[in-house]
Amino acid sequence: MNKSVLLGTVAAATIVAGSAFAGTLDDVKARGELICGSNTGLTGFGAPDASGNWAGFDVDLCRAVAAAVLGDPTKVKFVPTTGETRFTALASGEVDVLVRNSTWTFSRDNDLKLDFVAVNYYDGQGFMVKKDLGVSSAKELDGATVCIQTGTTTELNLADFFKSNNISYTPVTVADDSEAQRQYEAGACDAFTTDASGLASTRAAMADPANHIILPEIISKEPLGPVVRHGDNNWGDIVRWSYFALLIAEEKGITKANIDDIVKAATDDASYDPEVKRLLGVGDNDTGKLMGVDAKWAYNAIKAGGNYGEIFEANIGSATPIGLARGLNALWTEGGLQYAPPLR
Amino acid sequence: MADISFVRHQMLDPQAPPTSQSGVVKWLRENLFSGPLNSVLTILALISIYSLIKGAMPWLLNGVWNANSLTECRQIIADSGAAEVGGACWAMVRVRWNQFIYGLYPVAEYWRPTTAFALMFVALAPVLYYGLQRANALMAGIVGVLLVLALWGLGTDGYHIALSAAVMAGLTALAWVAPKKLVWVTLAFPAVAYWLLWGGSVWGTVGAVAGFGLFALVWSLTQRHVGVVVAAAIGLIAAVLWWSLVQSHITGVLAQWFPIELRYVRSDDFGGFLLAFVIGITAISASLPIGILLALGRQSNMLLVKTLSVSFIEFFRGVPLITVLFSANFMLLYFLPPRTNFDLILRVIIVVIIFASAYIAEVVRGGLAALPRGQYEAADALGLDYWQAQRLIIMPQALKISIPGIVSSFIGLFKDTTLVALVGLMDPLQGVRKIVLSDTAWRGIYWEPFIFVGVIFFVVCFSMSRYSMYLERKLKTDHR
Fold this sequence. Notes:
The complex is a heterodimer. Chain A has helices at residues 2-20, 24-31, 57-70, 86-91, 106-110, 153-164, 177-185, 196-204, 233-251, 259-268, 274-280, 288-291, 297-305, 308-315; strands at 34-39, 47-48, 54-55, 76-81, 97-98, 114-116, 121-123, 125-130, 144-149, 169-174, 191-195, 212-214, 222-224, 227-229. By secondary structure, chain A is of the alpha/beta class. Chain A folds into two domains: 2-122 and 224-334, Periplasmic binding protein-like II (D-Maltodextrin-Binding Protein, domain 2), CATH 3.40.190.10; 125-220, D-Maltodextrin-Binding Protein, domain 2. Chain A has a five-stranded mixed β-sheet. In chain A, α6 links the parallel β9 and β10 (169-174). Chain B is mostly helical. Chain B has a domain at 267-480: MetI-like fold (Orthogonal Bundle). Chain B has helices spanning 23-31, 36-61, 70-79, 91-102, 111-128, 133-153, 158-177, 182-198, 202-226, 228-257, 272-299, 303-318, 321-335, 344-370, 373-381, 386-416, 428-437, 447-475; strands spanning 200-201, 261-262. A two-stranded antiparallel ribbon of chain B has the order 1-2. In chain B, α5 packs parallel to α7 (158-177). The N and C termini of chain B lie far apart (60 Å). Chains A and B meet through α1, β2, β4, α7 and α8 of A and α4, α13 and α17 of B.
């Protein structure tokens, strides 16, 4: 009897929990605040700054979503999640959306019942070596010791890469980036491998960046993007299109600075680009109605931190100490992969 | 016959002992070079200490305090011609120390946790030095002066400094006039600290405390008639009814009439040593009474109580703390009704209390087991009931025996608070360090945050350890 009571409780809890996640949008509106799962601290992507304000590439996407839904980019609470807790935090409803440089993989999509709604950063795994090692390609790393973070997809990629090239390596496992850098600088390993964005910021932080080179091979695909729970498609659409709005804005040359002028010009000019009009909710355009958000959703999202290009340059772009080039993350019009479907 | 015997008329002056039998030489011979093996070990130890210092000292001494980024630090060290040995970049500590201490707590409100921390010492004074007028007043006075200095250093506004100074002066006076009355400060401290740390309307906190007051009142009125345990149950029911049904109406009205409130600070903003202390102090103070009850329960003759206590203790001693933390993070949310946003810090505090109680229970049981059977029988012979016997005869002796074990459990518990980083909280060692190092200005630093955090942990844990030794000496009644 006891057992059936327990099972019944679990079943009831599951049913209630399942039904509760249907209306994330309503939850967020009722709460007046978006809860965004973020990193515990990753250079350029998401961390609190000296005065305690969250800043970064992923953080700005959260703010854009908050602005699209609630009209105010400050109405967002950041919940730091670790590599282990991130997907559970999302699945259990502790956070509304997870923007935490998480790689979109088959098993995460299907097994964990999550939806990756977009890819806001195309990353890939690379290698960094000391210049005086005299290596110019990762395929020459036969017999090398390699510093690698444990428990990540990078560890598996590394094994695959060396196996398929029929060369050997000795792994030196480390717990995090800072330990990896320490070990690599101390000479405990010949090469350090992680996502290329991480390599770039690690190299930039070194005392002698000129003595280290990042090898040309990118051995894996790491599409990083915002994640929502499976089954709440409306909410997934909102996050996805908040992101696409930033892409379209860059494509159309709409920036944080000129957005008000463009709204004014589009209001006055009947022959102005109709997609811009739809995006910014000019006139009687109301694209937000279909998603259940304000007509000015995209305007608010862009106004929050600028378009995709502005967010990129402000947090991780070439003007920052991290100095990442757009590369794969350039717009499709400039040879990159960032491509938003038409807004119509 | 002439008397040839001779008796010395005065004593000889004492001679100085041979150099080999006195002073430094004797000490060295006895302690460091008492034999060939010890001499070799001494020399090896000296060599390793020397090489450690030789390696670390230049790095420590070349430390840079005034810089705005690691690059600047490196530049300054290179300019001073010490690029070869390198140097520590303490500037990171100077710029970001506040996050190591307070996490993301709003800067303008730093006076609140600082005041709560100072009040903690005043609240601890009667526990640590019960009834000692000088010790209590001295503690309150010194802490008061330090608090004012700290608040001034933090740039707090004059109003709050004056208020804190007045409160601390009042407490010092109270400690001087009536040191035993200070216990009331200790009892009020949890509520005051909660209000200071989290803020919000004062009436919410007052209402919660009133529930405990109601519990105590009902308990003391009924315990003579129905016994201790049933009285506690009735009191608990009364308190729960108050909290769930009555409180919000009354405190709501009071909050409208007398709106006294502090800015509400969310648990998410707690971090650094503030978080370590909140978790550590709460768990330490809650786990001791719970642990004592569990230890008594384990010794009980009642089968149900005994079984429950044993399974509780054995279960929580059998699983690692990390497992318990993860289940606090994941499991609880799945089982609670949706949308109950049960604060993560609260969840963590609860599981840490549960975990620590199980350990304390076993330490206290050790103390109980060490008591001679005669003590229990003597208590029975005096006609004391169970609770009286525990309170007057058994516990004072059992706890005294357990002091070293209890304190080392507390020290371990305080250090274990750093494990909360695994569930995404900002502990000083992992969480805040990661945040600071993710800043492009400080990325690449390695040892400095570990040393800074380590020193603070050492000071806290070492003080606890010294206090436990003092307490052992003070309570020593035998003549071993």
